[in-house]
Design goal:
The protein is built from four helices and six strands. The protein is α+β, with helices and mostly antiparallel strands and about 160 residues long. The longest helix is centred in the N-terminal third of the chain and has 17 residues, at about 15-30. It starts with 12 loop residues before the first helix and ends with a helix. Helices cover about 25% and strands about 40% of the residues. A hairpin with a 5-residue loop joins strand 5 and strand 6. It has a six-stranded mixed β-sheet. InterPro entries: DUF1348, NTF2-like_dom_sf.
């Protein structure tokens, strides 16, 4: 039996937004094993200048990422969708082990298989150093509260 991760393509505006929120929630858990389950076993990634393939590589990447990017909080927003593809924009805030804060902005292009698992993820990301007073994400670690402003509402 194949794994399934609804909603399944083809996506509508509603199901694309649901898929993006599910991804945001998973990434905000900072649980590499949980996040990796949303991808096909042979999923291909480009993350900045790093190229990965497969769940094991994704899980190892995320473990490294969240050991460096501390107090990570993320918001994703659908940019466009068609068929089995979704494009999102995102911003996340984090600090390094010296206490320096950053807001990382980017875009991701996602392609899903018929079971709703992501088989391709292409991410472009830029980091902006920010002062702690310039942070906009102040919810407790974990899922972003439903009443927290979106990227658009925050002017990001």
């Amino acid at each position: 039996m194949s794994e399934s991760r609804p909603p399944l393509p083809p996506f509508t505006a509603e199901t694309a937004a649901q898929k993006a929120r599910m991804a945001e929630d998973a990434w905000n858990s900072r649980d590499p094993a949980r996040v990796a389950l949303a991808y096909t076993t042979d999923s291909r990634w480009r993350n900045r200048a790093e190229f990965l393939q497969g769940r094991d590589a994704i899980q190892a990447f995320l473990t490294r990422k969240w050991s460096r990017e501390l107090d990570y909080r993320l918001i994703k927003e659908v940019w466009a969708f068609h068929g089995n593809r979704i494009a999102v924009r995102f911003a996340y805030e984090w600090h390094d082990d010296s206490g320096s804060w950053f807001r990382s902005y980017g875009n991701e292009n996602w392609e899903f298989d018929e079971h709703g698992l992501m088989r391709l993820r292409i991410a472009s990301i830029n980091d902006l150093p920010i002062g702690e007073a310039d942070r906009k994400y102040h919810w407790p670690l974990g899922r972003r509260p439903d009443d927290h402003p979106t990227l658009s509402e925050l002017g990001l």
